[in-house]
Amino acid sequence: MKSLLLERYYPYFLAGVGTLAWYKFGQVFAVDAQSFLSAALGLSGTILGFLATAQSILMALPSDSVMGQLKRSGYIDDLVRYLRESLYVLAAYAAWNLYGFAVVEPKSNALPLWYRTTWIALAIVSAASFHRVTEIVLRIMKRR
Q1: Which of 3, 18, 35, 86 could lock 124 by a disulfide, CB 3.0 to 4.6 Å apart?
Q2: Which residues cross the membrane (predicted)?
């Protein structure tokens, strides 16, 4: 139970702690905001594609294999939740990157502090939720 609780909430815990640490210890961010946002937007789209592929692979697994075991154990609800959360968080991260082009300060090519702080939180929760789903999918594929 304790490990499942940790598994469920560690992306959000890491995002909170990481964002507070970033804010407290210097707030380092990219100098060229537009190039950085372009790269981050491309990365988020790539990861979203990976998650959609992982979801398709899981849906295609036969019910009498690992997928059946997951359903019988009740863990399938958690797995679906993790996939959904990861897709939504990454979509929000991609949208936030896109929104960054609208708030970048034209003269300095910099982003406001409120935007950077939210970006850091979304980046960390996106990376952690992607990690969570990737680890689970790889364990499922190994057992297959």
Answers
A1: 18
A2: 12-30, 36-61, 82-99, 119-138
Does 64 fall in a domain?
A: yes
CA gap 79, 8 in Å, rounded: 10
With a cut of 60, say whether residue 57 has pLDDT above it. Answer: yes
Considering only CA atoms, which of 77, 90, 10 is closest in space to residue 50? Answer: 90
Between 73 and 144, residue with greater pLDDT: 73
Please give the residue range of the domain that contains residue 76.
33-143
Rounded (10°) CA dihedral 9, 11, 17, 22: -170
Averaged pLDDT for residues 95-100 = 95
Any residues with CB less than 8 A from the CB of 29 and at least 6 apart, and which? Answer: 36, 111, 116
Per-residue DSSP letter, 31? S
- Our count of domains for the chain comes to 1
Place of tokens 């990976």: 50
Residue 111 to residue 97: CA distance in whole angstroms: 11
Contact 96, 119 (CB under 8 A): yes
Place of tokens 């003269």: 107
pLDDT value for 2: 66
